[in-house]
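hey so i finally got around to running the thing on that chain from the lab meeting. sorry it took forever, my laptop kept dying and i had to restart like 3 times. anyway pasting the input first so we r on the same page abt which one it is
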Amino acid sequence: MHLRRMRTLLVALTAILLVFGASAFGGVQSEDAVLLTVSVIDVGQGDSVLIATSDGHAMLVDGGPADASS
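ok and heres what got predicted. didnt touch it at all, straight out
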C-alpha cells in the first residue's frame, strides 16, 4: 500500500511541476489559458489523483490494487 501511495504522490507532483514550470517560462497568461486543478483522493482502498482543467476536461489516475479491477 505504501508503494501505491508513493506512486500516486509522484504522479500528482509531476503534474504540478509541469504546470508551474511551464508558467514560469511563459511569463504572461493569455486569455484562453487553461488552468489545472489537481486533487489527491484517499478512499481507504487506494489513492487516486483527479486532474481537472478549467475547460471541462478531467483525468482520473487510479492507484488502487490491480486485482480490484476486472
